[in-house]
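During the reporting period the student researcher (J.K.) took over the structure-prediction task from the postdoctoral fellow and processed the backlog of single-chain submissions. One of the processed entries is reproduced below for the supervisory committee.
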Amino acid sequence: MNSPLLRVQNLQVSFAVKGHGDYRLRAVAGVSFDLQPGESLGIAGESGCGKSTLGRAILGLTRSDGGEIHLRGERIDGYSATELRRVRRHMQIIFQDPTSSLDPRISVGASIGEPLQSFEPTVSRAARRERILAAALQVGLTADLLERYPQELSGGQCQRVAIARAIIARPALVVCDEAVSALDVSIQAQIVNLLRNLRDELPLSLLFISHNLAVIKSLCQRVLVMYLGRVVESASTAGLFDNPRHPYTRALLDAVPVADPQVQRLRGTAPLAGDPPSPIAPPPGCVFHPRCPHAIERCRIEAPVLESVANAQVACHRWRELPAWNGVIDRASSQPSAAL
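J.K. obtained the following structure tokens:
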């Protein structure tokens, strides 16, 4: 296997909690993974699980306070703003809200060309115009849109502008932070197809953050499932959908919409009960045990560690004892659909 493009080891991110003295909220609690060149890795979980904080910490937008981040073998965590600027051209981000991520005061073409001004200031004006047009066409925008302003475009067009801006400096890694969740379902499918094509053509590695496992299934080769700042399961996408081992992963998959009412009835599963515990005061033992129908006393007092099994990892004391998963995912669910 090739050397990973990105290596994250035991990454930890915490925030001070106002009114709680020196107490810190642990948003990311010891996450580790590798991302290979040209690979798409999905980061899944409910809102508040730490997946967006993880992505921002990798980019240096949020400071980590433990662990290591390596990009192309170079350790970059703890870099100063000046040092980050040197490597940041290789790491870009696409935000959730395509409209608010663009400056309404400048044209679409100027927005797309901003990274060139930062990372390649010596490029001539003519060459910059050519690069801007090429990036716009690559994401499905027409030349006449370059003189318009973001407020004159649809949400899907604005997200294509954001994607063009992210790829124009030819980065190796793009973090997609809920990049399609604000779009209509039909537009979601178009953007996912575009990201897949760009990944294969450029090539490009994607860290795709989403709470929608149906979207992740259609784009990513591997999936990392997070709960309360921790990784509870990781596997290939096919392996995760065919044989989820963690009860939380099963609950997320059971929530994926199924178009056929008869198939939905065959599932025979109940929605995941309750809300995630507060990350300010996580429960002892397995953090999922208050919501887990399979929890035993050991789960309440002993935190499970990630255990390797058949090219996957799972953090659950009882995964070997669980019955075979009887979830049903039809073909329609492999396409982008409504959010979980």
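The committee noted the following: Confidence is low (pLDDT under 50) at residues 330-340.
J.K. will present the remaining backlog at the next meeting.
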